[in-house]
Amino acid sequence: MNNSSTLIITASIIISALIVSFSNRYQPSPINESFVIDSWTGDIYDIQGTNLEQSMPNKNNKVQ
């Protein structure tokens, strides 16, 4: 194998990995399909694209 074919194979693997990661980022919620979960950040969005994590700032507060 020469250098150009190695570079082409490397570039195609990297581009394929990026395509797969971007295409699988937003997954429908298994509980309610009107919500979408961002698999990278864990944020939850409604059908209009509103980030529900930002509208519920106290979700991480635990009851003592």
What descriptors fit this protein?
3-stranded antiparallel beta sheet, 2 helices, alpha+beta, 64 residues, 39% helix, 3 strands
Rg, Cα atoms, Å: 19 Å
| Strand line-up in the sheet with most strands | 1-2-3
Cα shape: elongated
Assess the beta-strand content as a share of residues: 5-15%
Structure write-up:
With 64 residues, the protein is an alpha+beta fold. The protein has one domain (3-55). It has helices at residues 3-23, 52-55; strands spanning 26-28, 36-38, 44-45. The chain has a 3-stranded antiparallel beta sheet, with no helix packed on it. A hairpin with a 7-residue loop joins strand 1 (26-28) and strand 2. The longest helix is centred in the N-terminal third of the chain and has 21 residues, at 3-23. The protein starts with a helix and ends in a 9-residue tail after the last helix.
In short:
By secondary structure, the protein is of the alpha+beta class.
